[in-house]
Amino acid sequence: MLFVFIGKDKPGGLEHRLAVRPTHLEHLASLGEKLRLAGALWDENDQAEGSVMVLEADSLEQAKALFAADPFVTEGVFASWEVKHWNLAINHMVTKD
What is the pLDDT of residues 37-53, one digit of tens each? Predict the structure, then answer.
């Protein structure tokens, strides 16, 4: 099953986000192919304001545990975050030959 994570940064937290980013990226790499997509959300001033990640897990509880271990969560980068079961309906992410 697929699960989506939506995290919103604490206001004025760009410096903190950048400081934690290397360990965040290490955590994402450790998820291997379970992690399907990940990237920053940008505000109207082209500044990072949050993150979206999609991973495959056996249950909502497992997905929440994997996302909760992310350094952006454990180090307090996010003001809020949520995890939802997600069904992919359309996928144009892969380029066609």
Answer: 999 999 999 989 999 99
- Which amino acid is present at 57? A
DSSP conformational letter for 61: H
CA distance 84 to 41: 17
Please tell me the pTM assigned to this model: 0.89
* β-sheet with 48-56: strand ranges across: 35-42, 48-56, 2-9, 78-86
Q: Return the biggest CA–CA distance within the chain.
A: 43
Contacts of 64 (CB under 8 A, 6+ apart): 83
Structure tokens at 9: 């940064």
Give the C-alpha separation, 96 to 28, whole Å: 26
